[in-house]
């Protein structure tokens, strides 16, 4: 016999149950008839024949029952019956069912949405060949405070030659790799990345069209070659296959297109358009700058059979060799490796895990809430259950009945949760600040669906088991006795419900405290002074292509004339330019040495920036000492610098820095350029609001020009209104020059808060839900408890207790629950919020004010939730109650 | 009326298969034929027959369809499937071996 026919037969029996029953009945009647006819033929009279036949049939119902058993679908039929019964039971209280499904749905939905982000970022392997053996290499330097910094190309090349444990090492850099595409219509800015030729074979990525780069192309600065991303090829070149081998114009230079990468490929960042070849020269290999500047990100693949620890030991050894071989350039320079996926995830990991913990807590609260609802329902049905138990329904049968109901709720809640979760991922995707979740599309794959299912099943077990256990223990005799008179549900049910509510409050305290800390932190951050006035300020970034603007005079000249035009645009109050926009990106950093200090007493990591005259005035950065730049500070004049307050304080103390001279080398030598300090200005936050200002020095734009500059424009009215005027001013000077970006500084300021705000909003939402559920829980349990005690209240009132005393009695109970929950919650939150240290800004994870506010908030809400039912109980009319007894 | 075949549990299915190998038949007919063929040694009660038919259907040995009888009545007929035919062969061989063995034992004991 085959399993298949068996299963099919069973299924058919299940599906066509009614039909089969009818047919069986017909078959048996037919049998009876023929049997009766046989007896008649044998000479019996019809009535007797009939009776004889019926006797032979041996009880029609019994036959039918044994045939049913033979169909082999008994357990399934029972299940179907349970499900039908459960649906009817839930259908009888649609309000309860809807609330339960919604609560479960919220819990499952929130968990699913966050899990899908965790799945995409942490669990989903990178789409490369054997992604587990890919490592990001980095440099560290205790003296410079570097941890996981980009590497110097010369060091990278030495690692590649000497570390045997790596099969190969490739490298990329996003530094200055964005390009302006011209030639067809408006100039467009494309996002690019420079890569070494071996990156694609190392990752195991092939071109969809054409080919990827060769090793030779990394070392060929004569020809420029480019690979296009799929969407760039489609959007900017009309998916033209004839493009392969032809040249396109990027930053004014011809680039030969060698291939197009596959759809969806974008590495190392999202939405890249171009992959360009590094174009190093053999002369670079031995040049000092190749080891002094640290700007590339190397990716290594482990050789098969070599462990990460072995490779790391080799890397360390090579790094030590390089320190000895280049004592100046590699002073204290260390190296290290991190699994690529972990590195790319970076500081997204902590917020993700905190959010995952938050939704987990929310889900627990939701389960406790539904469990409580079910318990209340179950205690209402206690009488029914007790009667059924007394009539012989097995304990298992009753438990199964209740669990079926829970499973139905969980299934409906799970489906609602999936829908809400899908919606949630869309919202997350839209709201996420750039660079936080770094995924352009979350998707619901098998793992996410499996997670949602597991969570739903877990929830059903969690909230179903309590009332089920309770039903199972519903001792028939005791319950019937207990409920016979007063119909007050057992004390046990109340105790369980109270415990659930305490747990709910404790968990809510945890979430609300976490959210509170983030809110405090966000307030702190919003109050941070960026060091300049961000309102009525527009920033416009330009990048002059080297083809048309050779270094030096032409660049300085262009910006000088452009600034003059910009100042003439109506609505412009002041205008200047800077090589790096504060709160966005700091300039590159250098070692430095101040004249008059002993050799060896050098500083490092001074941020360097180039600014045009009147930059500080335009930004409203205060000048603390000396003077700012003028047009006279140009090539040929005395080299000058302005330093920020922090540099002045740390390196000059109370002494006057004006007139002192400084170089950007560790030790002075014949090539050192001595610059005189002419002014001290206030500190600006260079990279982000949350990061303290670094020591910084400004050079005059005329003495150290840069092609890529950001115009800063102070306006009289709305900054957005003058963008068109600026665009026109630029076009008048160079029609092929696009505005790379035009952004209000107010927006840059807000962007710097975006991540914190996003996290705060998410956690606040979860905490709000948790809070609401917990308060509803308190209300529900108090209401139930007071309802149960209405007779007692009536008696008390009849005996002369005043309404106030009764109110206090009921209130005390609810407050005890709330208080206990608060104490337990605070006890957990105190150590648990430490996990959030990395997420909060200038707020202690055990911030007393936050803890106090949370206590007050939940305490008051708990009081209100108890007060309403308690008040109702105090107004009980004793006459009515006593009569109803 | 007692189930005289009950002593020979497990043989009912074989008897049904044998009966159906002669041609499709409805439940009552199967019982009649078994009684006739066994000269009333086996009497089949409906309480055993119909569950057995249900089990055999599930095992795929027989199938059923509704047909008209000679008197133009609607009745459920049972038919032997190829799997049922093979099963009959197996059961017959097993039974014959067992019967032969049993016979030898009994003869020896008597002798």
Read across the widest sheet of chain B, the strand sequence of neighbours is 1-3-2
The helix-and-strand class of chain B reads: alpha+beta
Average pLDDT level of chain B: 82
Helical segment count of chain B? 4
Residues in β-strands, percent of chain A = 15-25%
Order of helices and strands of chain B: HEHHEEH
Head-to-tail CA distance between termini of chain A: 65 Å
Q: What structural class do the secondary elements of chain A suggest?
A: alpha+beta
Proportion of beta-strand residues of chain B: 5-15%
Mean pLDDT of chain A, rounded to whole units? 86
- Low-pLDDT stretches of chain A are 483-488
Apparent shape of chain B? globular
Annotation, overall tally of beta strands of chain A: 24
Helix content of chain B: 55-70%
Percent helix range of chain A: 40-55%
Low-pLDDT stretches of chain B: 1-7
Q: What is the overall number of helices of chain A? A: 29
- Major beta sheet summary of chain B: 3 strands, antiparallel
The rough form of chain A would be described as: elongated
Question: Could you give a short description of this structure?
Answer:
The complex is a heterodimer of chains A (885) and B (111). Chain A has 885 residues and is α+β, with helices and mostly antiparallel strands.
Can you walk me through this structure?
The complex is a heterodimer of chains A (885) and B (111). Chain A is an alpha+beta fold and 885 residues long. Chain A is built from 29 helices and 24 strands. Chain A starts with a helix and ends with a helix. In chain A, the strands form three sheets. In chain A, strands 1, 2, 3, 4, 5, 6, 7, 8, 9, 10, 11, 12 and 13 form a 13-stranded mixed β-sheet that branches. Chain B is an alpha+beta fold and 111 residues long. Chain B contains four helices and three strands. Chain B has helices at 11-21, 27-37, 46-59, 82-110; strands at 25-26, 62-68, 74-80. Chain B has a three-stranded antiparallel β-sheet with strand order 1-3-2. In chain B, a hairpin with a 5-residue loop joins strand 2 and strand 3. In chain B, helix 1 (11-21) packs across helix 2 (27-37). The longest helix of chain B is centred in the last third of the chain and has 29 residues, at 82-110. At the A-B interface, helix 1, helix 2, helix 3 and helix 4 of A face helix 2, helix 3 and strand 3 of B.
